[in-house]
Specification:
By secondary structure, the protein is mainly alpha-helical. About 70% of the residues lie in helices and about 0% in strands. The chain has three helices and no strands.
């Protein structure tokens, strides 16, 4: 009777052997996938460190560098007008302009303008930096819209 009990008990555990083998392979696959995710996490962490340094450098550059010859709204308006004129000239045939002949005015009638004294006004540095930043952002948008032109 004791031998039949051992045989029955062994046969009942045999049916679980395949299930445990599948469970073991599943855990092995899970462990490998988790290691891949861990590597992706480490790569992202390194990228974030490098990119944050890059952004910090750009921010410090923006605070330290002044653009005395930064474009203004008028220069953007003239750029857009020139661009539109170029597009119109490319699409329509060029007509020869008609010139009027002007008679020269006598020198005695020419009035020389009196120069105005230069105005001294206080420059709000924070406002100037903010305006320059907007102008630079507008330039970057224009460049992104037309990367092939490179203007």
């Amino acid at each position: 009777a004791s031998t039949t009990f051992v045989i029955e008990r062994a046969s009942s555990l045999d049916c679980l052997e395949e299930t445990f083998a599948e469970l073991s392979t599943s855990f092995t696959t899970f462990h490998q996938n988790f290691q891949c995710i861990k590597q992706v996490h480490e790569s992202l962490k390194e990228f974030n460190k490098a990119f944050s340094g890059f952004l910090y450098g750009i921010k410090m550059n923006a605070h330290c560098v002044e653009f005395p010859e930064a474009p203004t709204k008028e220069t953007f308006a003239s750029f857009i007008q020139k661009r539109d004129a170029e597009l119109l000239n490319k699409s329509t045939p060029i007509a020869t302009p008609v010139r009027k002949i002007n008679t020269p005015t006598p020198i005695s009638k020419i009035k020389t303008p009196t120069p105005l004294p230069p105005k001294k006004k206080k420059i709000n540095k924070a406002l100037l930096i903010k305006q320059n930043r907007k102008n630079v952002e507008l330039i970057l948008r224009i460049l992104c819209d037309n990367p092939a032109e490179g203007k």
